[in-house]
Amino acid sequence: MDQQAVLQELCDGVSAAGMMGTLERLQHWVKLSGSAQEMESLRFVEQRIAAHGYRTEILLHDAFISLPGAARVVVEGRDLTCITHSFSRPSPAGGLTAPVVYVGAGGDADFAGQDLRGKIILVDGMATPAVAARGLRAGVAGQIHATQDDHIHEMCISPVWGSPSAETLEELPQAVVCTISRADGAALRGRLQAGAALTATLHAEVDTGWRKTPILVAEMDAPGATGDDAPFVLFSGHHDTWYHGVMDNGAANATMLEVARLAATRRADWQRGLRFCFWSGHSHGRYSGSAWYADAFWDELERRCVAHVNTDSTGGRGATVLTGSGCAAELRAVARAAIRDVAGQDYTGKRFGRQGDESFWGIGIPSIFNSLSHQAENVGAVHGAVKLGWWWHTPQDTLDKIDPDNLVRDTRVFVHVVWALLSAERLPFDYTAHARELSGLLAELAGQLGDRLSLAPLNHALAAFEAAAARIAAAPLPPAAVNAALLRVSRALVPMDYTRGDRFTHDPALAQAPWPVLEPVRRLAAAPAGSAAEPFLRVSAQRAANRVAHALRQAREALEALHA
Fold this sequence. Notes:
This protein is an alpha/beta fold and 564 residues long. Helix content is 40%, strand content 17%. The protein contains 17 helices and 14 strands.
C-alpha cells in the first residue's frame, strides 16, 4: 500500500466513539498541577497509551506552581463578583486598600505619564502577563481587571516562562490581581471617568510555591532504530486543567491517544520514532513542565528530536475555522496539506505567538500547531476566551462543549501531520520558505535603516543559504544524510527565528516581533537620526546582524557538505 493510501486509512480510522469515551472518563477529574486528582487522571491516560504498545514513564519534578483561591473585591462597602489569578500576590491581612486609577486597556501608552506607585489600577480586559509586567515596572500595588464578555476567565499572569530562575525571580508579579464582571467594571470605569475618587480593598488567597508535578512520557521506536541518536517526533499537550477542562485540554489528550493508537498500527512504515509528552504546569506554572523537560533533556532533544507537534483544545463546539494556528515557516507546507485534505480550508500560514508549551525553540526544534480550530466570529482574537469558546478557562468547560464531528476532524489533521513527519524518508522541511520570510523582513528593515547600518552582508549570507536549500530540495541525495543536515540547519536557524538568541534559557512569556534576535536592529531603525543614542544602538545592531549571518553560514555549510 502506498503512503497516501496508508494516510487515508489512518484518517478514516479516527473514532469519535473512542475519543468521546475517553472524555467521559477524563471529565470527572479536576486536574490542578501537582494535585492527587491530576495524578489519578494521568495514570488513566498512561494505561490507555501503554495498551497500544508504548513504553511509558511518569517523571516527577519540582515546579513553581501557583493555585488561586478565594477572592473579594470591595468598593464603597459593596462586594463585587470576582476571582484572583495564578501568580497574583496574596493580599496582606485585612486586604490591600488603595486608591483606584483607570488605565484603559493597560497598554504602554495607558501607563505613560502616570504615577501609579502604590495604587490599584482598573484595566479593561483580561489579566495577562503583559499587563502584570507593566504593573511591576510602574510599582502598582493591585490590579482590577474588568472582563469584556459575560464570563470571568482563569488566567496565569506570570511573564516568567517556566519555573523562575535566580535571574528571573524578580520578574514575577508583585501586585494583588483580581478580575471582576463586565457590569461591575463598567460601573467603576464610569465613576472614575466622571471624576470620582474611589478606593478599593482586594482580598486574594493564592498558594504559590515549589511542588512535585508529573509528566507522562510515552514512546515507541521506529523499526530497527536503536542507539542514542535515533531520531523521533515529539507530540505534546498539557494534561493539567482549570476546573474539569474537558475541551482544554481533555479533548486534546483524547486526540493524542487516538493518534498514538492509529500510528502504532502502521509502525512498520515509520522512518523515525514517536514520543508523547503530557505536561503538568501549563495552566498554573506558565509552562513549567515543558520548560523543565527542555532543560533536563536538552542534550538528547538537541541530538534526536526532529520536530515538535503541539495540540490544545480540539473539537470545540462551533470551532469551524482551522486557519489561525501557528506554524514554523519550514513546516507550513505540511500544515497546508493537512488542513486542505481534511477540512478543505486554505491555510496560508501564521507565525507562532509567544504562548503554549513552545519551550523547544532555543534547542532549535521547529514546531507546528497549538490550538487548531477556532470560533469563526473571533478569528485573530488574542485571548482564548473568544478564540476557543466562551467557556474557556471557566467551570463551564464541560463535555457538552465538545462537537464529536469537530473532534474527529481536528484529530484527522493531527494524524495527517504526525504521519507526514513519521513516514517521510526525507524530513518535509522547506527552508526556502524560511529564507523567503526572513528576506521580506530584511527588506523592510533596510528601508527603515537607510544608511545607518548596511545589511548587505546579512543579505548575502541569506541568499547563499537559500540557494543551498533550493539545490538539495530535489537532489537525489541519501535521505539519512539529508535529514542529518536538516537537523543542523534547524539547530542554527530556529533559535534565530523565535528567540533572542540564547539557546539555553527561555525568553519571557511576552509578545515578540519576528526574529526577535534582530530586535537591536529594529531599535536602531526606530531611533531618531542623529540622536545621542544612535551610535550605541548601532553597536548592538551590528552584533545582532552578525549573529544571524553566522547562523545562516552554519546552515549553508551543513547543506553544502552534502555535495562534498
